[in-house]
Design brief:
single chain, alpha+beta, Rossmann fold, Elongation Factor Tu (Ef-tu), domain 3, Alpha-Beta Plaits, 3 domains, 8-stranded antiparallel β-sheet, 12 helices, 30% strand, binds guanosine-5',3'-tetraphosphate
Amino acid sequence: MTSKLEQDILSRRTFAIISHPDAGKTTITEKLLLFGGAIRDAGTVKGKKSGKFATSDWMEIEKQRGISVTSSVMQFDYLGKRVNILDTPGHQDFSEDTYRTLMAVDSAVMVVDAAKGIEAQTLKLFKVCRLRGIPIFTFINKLDRQGKEPLELIEELEEVLGINAYPMNWPIGMGKEFLGIYDRYNKRIEQFRTEESERFLPIDEDGELAVDHPMKVTSYYSQAMDDIMLLNEAGNDFSEEKIRRGELSPVFFGSALTNFGVQTFLETYLQFAPAPQPRITEDEQFIDPVEHGDLSGFIFKIQANMNPAHRDRIAFVRIVSGKFERGMNVTLSRTSKSFKVTQSTQFLADDRETVDEAVAGDIIGLYDTGTYQIGDTIVGGKKTFQFEKLPQFTPELFVRVTAKNVMKSKQFHKGILQLVQEGAIQYYKTLHTEEVILGAVGQLQFEVFEHRMKNEYNVEVQMQPIGSKIARWIENEEDVKESMHSTRSMLVKDRYDNLVFLFENEFAMRWFSEKNEDIKLYSLL
Ligand code: G4P
């Protein structure tokens, strides 16, 4: 007999949706929430153009740029499963938060625009998923418009991303002539734009449409049948095992805007998406969501001032094992301090509500007054441990930063320290003069930094761009000499006092490596 807690944990499905901007991530999220009954109207998820949810002070930046800086967590129940969707900021100026969110999920859904195929941003996020070996499900969107040939899209997916694909369904026609999808997995045809009662048509043992239907005599139908024959004969075999290991991506076609294929996707996805997975500790113990028994979790994101009236920070915790109950005692492993958690929150779109209970797989938010850092572990039991470090991502953009008013130096350093701990930005300093250099994955992080320094710490900063650099850490620091520092290969220290070279470009890095063969450079993710 399984316990109630075990059933609860095993019902969780926690995933992120990744996509290149405009592929349709928001639209599909909205449809998923509609199916789950979490929202009643379309148009609730984003106030992108309507500005409906202008609640956080970051909205200033969001409004100006028409993007969503913050990412939230959405939860709903569907067919006996509790689904947690973690949103990832997908603008080209996305930040490390986007990457880190992928550390907190058990699978990912990749949305691809059928007309554009695999785009740069998707590729970056996909790589992080691959690194973690998490299952990736693909939704090829916008079939109601003319796009690339389906076979071409599958080929591109496999080539560019280096993953095998298994089309779970296949489009019949496209754009104006989009008739529906041939559902290989559920063995039926789903018609586009039709009465609900005629939505599904059966297929016979030979895989042909089993009823007389005008679709059968169209060239789109014969083309789809030819393609499917090819896939059956020469395509990949379906393997649940490979899906679980992230080696085979099930592919679904559909049109999120017209709400076509999304429900079929959700239902099939929930059959194969993994329940909460174990995580590894620094001393290489596996913490199983159910068997470990006690509560444990890690902080993957800290977000400030979601509500400007409260000036609070929220630490996002992915629960790894056990159960969280409001009012319980937890220990922060880094400091070994124990405290009672009375203020906790769960997220639904933009509404926050107090959470009393949550289990492994769920994400909760803890009110933070400066206690937490990214990567912190919290435990509920007596035994403390630390989950494996979250990866740090190699920044590509750098600025030199100073306070406009030297009298504000104390607040300046305090602000920087806190924002660095939140993971909003990466901190470096020059060797002797200790000038502050900040690194980021996307330009937006600097803008958020400047805005928050002014609004939260009352310090106006001066940022002098030093442009994009290639940052490389050093395996054998003891062999580094200060004479290796130059304008093309700047030597700095990171926040942990590790030495880092900031190379001007690829050429400068190669030149350096040729001159200094004994210096072993490495990059973070
Ligand atoms: P994102 O979150 O990935 O950035 O994409 P989002 O859902 O905002 O969708 C980007 C644009 O693509 C939107 O149009 C949206 O309506 C459209 N779209 C999404 N799914 C489909 C689809 O299946 N078919 C078609 N034809 N279009 C789709 P927009 O004009 O930029 O925004 P809006 O005015 O509709 O909000």
